[in-house]
């Protein structure tokens, strides 16, 4: 096969009793294989429908995948469990982070650990205590462990609306951190948001973080203001500079950023809306990849991975083999009832980037 060939190796479309598959993450196992865990919906295609976590395995760096799902975590919440982050910890264990959604005002992250390569999992650790219950959004593939060992979970805390059984769409971007390998957790401070010139509040949602070479963390958030907003932390996520607009032009859709091990550059995956026609404006298409060689100051080598104007591309997980990036993302059709219903896994050669 050509070294620059893009391979779409797994497509998980909805079916009877399974109206949506979405939002997964990867982890490499000790034997060299890959585990991919994602959210399998059974009670509907909406975000609050019943769902559980299932997995697929690959023994050839994501070229092929097992044909059947295996159960990873049954639904243990009143609504669902979803939004997986898998992380190989410095002590060798695998951590499984996920959201437990109890109601439209109570959604919080939990973590379980495996010491036997994902064959079994510990009892869940509650990251946010009951006394601080609110609607916390933590996207898939968001959790990082820093060089010093700290675990960082970027979250958007959506406060309960007064006298209304729902949450505010205006999130507070913060990090939940652990300095004892995930046994106990605490809140960092929320990032302030730079005001817009017109005075309209900025809707901040779905933060992610990436560690920079100088030791700082960079936070990126989706907004309704036309770009990803960025903030920086010099104390490993305890506090942040104000969130400000960036040159990452974007609809209200999440971005993903990870460091490419083989080049030490940053890889950005998002819906690039710089200079696009009017019709797709605000829609989650195209799906664009870009590279930064200067820690996110500038981005270049733009390549569109998906360009269907009716496509709905978002919630990307990123992992790296020796020569490829593995990307998993929602890839449905927005003309259908839910563009999030179909999940796609694609192998992209590092050289193509």
Note the run of SSEs as H and E: EEEEEEEEEEEEEEEEEEEEEEEEE
Tell me the helix content: under 10%
Q: Structural class of the secondary structure composition? A: mainly beta
CATH topology call: Neuraminidase
Number of domains: 1
Compute the separation of the termini in Å.
17 Å
Which residues sit in consecutive blocks of at least 5 with pLDDT less than 50?
none
Q: Which band does the percent of strand residues land in?
A: over 45%
Question: How does this structure look, described?
Answer:
With 353 residues, the chain is mainly β. It has one domain (7-352): 6 Propeller (Neuraminidase), CATH 2.120.10.10. Helices cover 0% and strands 46% of the residues. It has no helices and 25 strands. It has strands at residues 7-12, 20-28, 34-41, 51-58, 70-73, 80-88, 94-103, 106-114, 125-126, 135-137, 144-145, 151-158, 172-178, 186-187, 205-211, 217-222, 227-233, 244-249, 256-259, 266-270, 287-292, 300-306, 311-320, 324-333, 343-349. Strands 10, 11, 12, 13 and 14 form a five-stranded antiparallel β-sheet that branches. The chain has a four-stranded antiparallel β-sheet with strand order 1-25-24-23, with no helix packed on it. Strand 6 and strand 7 (94-103) form a beta hairpin. It is globular. The two termini are 17 Å apart. 46% of the residues are buried.
């Amino acid at each position: 096969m050509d070294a620059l060939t893009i391979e779409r190796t797994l497509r998980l479309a909805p079916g009877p009793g399974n109206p949506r598959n979405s939002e997964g993450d990867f982890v490499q196992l000790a034997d060299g294989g890959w585990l991919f865990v994602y959210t399998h919906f059974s009670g509907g295609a909406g975000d609050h429908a019943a769902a559980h976590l299932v997995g697929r395995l690959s023994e050839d760096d994501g070229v092929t995948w097992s044909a059947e799902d295996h159960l990873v975590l049954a639904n243990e919440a009143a609504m669902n469990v979803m939004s997986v982050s898998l992380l190989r910890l410095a002590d060798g264990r695998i951590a499984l982070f996920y959201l437990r959604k109890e109601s439209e005002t109570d959604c919080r992250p939990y973590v379980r650990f495996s010491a036997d390569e994902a064959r079994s999992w510990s009892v869940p650790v509650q990251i946010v205590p009951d006394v601080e219950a609110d609607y916390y959004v933590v996207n898939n593939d968001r959790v990082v462990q820093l060089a010093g060992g700290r675990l960082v979970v970027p979250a958007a805390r959506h406060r309960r609306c007064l006298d209304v059984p729902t949450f505010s769409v205006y999130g507070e971007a913060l990090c939940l951190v652990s300095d004892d390998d995930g046994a106990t957790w605490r809140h960092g401070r929320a990032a302030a948001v730079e005001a817009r010139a017109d005075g309209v509040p900025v809707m901040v949602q779905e933060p992610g973080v990436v560690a920079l070479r100088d030791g700082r963390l960079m936070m990126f958030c989706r907004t309704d203001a036309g770009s990803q907003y960025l903030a920086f932390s010099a104390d490993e996520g305890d506090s942040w500079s104000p969130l400000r607009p960036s040159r990452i032009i974007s609809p209200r859709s999440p971005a993903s950023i990870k460091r490419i091990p083989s080049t030490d550059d940053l890889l950005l995956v998002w819906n690039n809306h710089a200079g696009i026609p009017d019709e797709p404006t605000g829609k989650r298409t195209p799906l664009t990849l870009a590279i930064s060689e200067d820690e996110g100051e500038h981005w270049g080598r733009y390549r569109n991975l998906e360009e269907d104007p009716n496509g709905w591309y978002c919630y990307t997980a990123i992992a790296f083999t020796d020569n490829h990036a593995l990307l998993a993302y929602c890839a449905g059709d927005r003309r259908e009832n839910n563009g999030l219903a179909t999940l796609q896994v694609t192998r992209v050669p590092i050289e193509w980037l």
